[in-house]
Design a protein that fits this description.
This protein has helices spanning 44-51, 83-89, 108-118, 124-137, 153-166, 183-199, 211-217, 235-240, 245-254, and strands at residues 6-15, 18-28, 33-37, 59-64, 67-68, 71-74, 77-80, 93-96, 171-175, 203-207, 220-225, 228-233. The chain has 256 residues and is α/β, with parallel strands linked by helices. It has one domain (6-104, 171-254): P-loop containing nucleotide triphosphate hydrolases (Rossmann fold, 3-Layer(aba) Sandwich). A six-stranded mixed β-sheet has the order 8-9-10-3-11-12, with helices on both faces. It has a four-stranded antiparallel β-sheet with strand order 2-1-4-5, with helices on one face. Strands 6-7 form a two-stranded antiparallel ribbon. Strand 6 (71-74) and strand 7 form a beta hairpin. The longest helix is centred in the last third of the chain and has 17 residues, at 183-199. The radius of gyration is 18 Å and the shape is globular. The relative contact order is 0.16.
Length: 256
């Protein structure tokens, strides 16, 4: 067995007096697809925001590719990571947000090209070629020169996925990427994620309320409840065969 690509070690997160995460221990293996489910406010999004360095843990350690994400060594001591360290370690992580976060003044091709050129210092030529390939892959090769305002919500979300893929991440994070979409657009986005899960060897962490989709693609499912991992196992174990009453009550609201 290879080493986990991500490790959470007794991770806590508080916002003021509110304890959102209460001791998360979690291993994610290379290429593993992990779905995170649970009621609103259980800490699901906080987990992936900490991985993306958008929220800092109150305590505990997050290890990415063998390197502590939020701490670094300085003169023999472990100290709080600086921005250079954070940027370097999170370089292998891509994220697709709930609300797309596209630049409205850029074409969708320019949206995909910006980060590799400015963050990874790649040449415009190679980034352009890869961006076109990824936009083709998500079914938007004919929209290269369109602006976000000219696209549907589902198309914007597919652009966001292409943009993340262009960075060639080893870990991809998806934060409720269908929850802001009209119901008729959800399927097209899930189909792209299904394709990524099937053909790419990156690890994936999906915060989702699409239970049948999680059952279909996830190697492992975590049920978060009140800041702890209350249940984890294979998708079948957690979604179809759990005896946890809180989990059963939660699933009943989402599965017909």
């Amino acid at each position: 067995m290879s080493e986990p690509i991500v490790k959470f070690q007794d991770v806590h997160k508080s916002f003021g007096d509110i304890n959102v995460l209460k001791g998360i221990n979690l291993d994610i293996n290379p290429a593993e697809k992990v779905a995170v489910i649970g009621p609103s406010g259980s800490g699901k999004t906080t987990i992936i925001r900490m991985l993306m360095t958008l929220e800092e843990p109150t305590s505990g350690d997050i290890i990415v590719n063998g390197t502590n994400l939020w701490k670094m060594e300085k003169k023999g001591d472990m100290v709080r990571a600086n921005e250079k360290h954070l940027r370097q370690v999170r370089g292998d992580i891509g994220m697709v947000f709930q609300h797309f976060n596209l630049f409205p003044h850029m074409t969708i091709l320019e949206n995909c090209m910006t980060a590799p050129i400015h963050v990874k210092k790649e040449t415009k030529e190679e980034v352009r070629e890869r961006s076109i390939q990824m936009l083709d892959r998500v079914g938007l090769g004919d929209k290269l020169n369109n602006y976000p305002s000219q696209l549907s919500g589902g198309q914007k979300q597919r652009v966001a996925m292409a943009r993340a893929l262009v960075m060639r991440p080893k870990i991809m994070l998806f934060d409720e990427v269908t929850s802001a979409l009209d119901p008729e657009l959800v399927g097209e986005v899930l189909e792209v994620i299904r394709d990524i899960a099937k053909h790419d060897d990156m690890a994936m962490v999906l915060v989702t309320h699409e239970m049948d989709f999680a059952l279909d693609i996830a190697d492992k499912v975590l049920f978060l409840d009140e800041g702890v991992i209350a249940e984890q196992g294979t998708a079948s174990q957690v979604i179809e065969h759990s005896t946890n009453e809180r989990l059963q009550g939660f699933l009943h609201r989402f599965r017909k």
